Amino acid sequence: MLTRATRVRLGLLIAGTTVANIAMMTPSPSSASAAAATHEHAALQRLLDRAVAVGGVPGILAEVRDGGRRWSGTAGVADTATGRARRARDRYRIGSTTKTFVATVMLQLVAEHRVSLDDTVDRWLPGVVRGNGHDGGAITVRRLLDHTSGIFNYTDDQAALSRYPSPTPEQLLDIAMSHPPAFVPGTSWAYSNTNYILAGLIIERASGGTLADEIATRIARPLRLAGTYLPRGADPVIHGPHSQHYTKKFQTGPDAVIYDATEMDTSLFWATGAMISTAGDLNRFFRALLSGRLLPAAQQREMFTMVPTKDWIAGSAYGLGISSVTLSCGTTVWGMGGALFGSFSYTYGTRDGEHMLAINVNGDWTDGGWEDPIGIFTDALEVEFRPGDSRAPRRSMEPADPA
Question: Secretion signal: which residues (predicted)?
Answer without folding.
Answer: 1-20
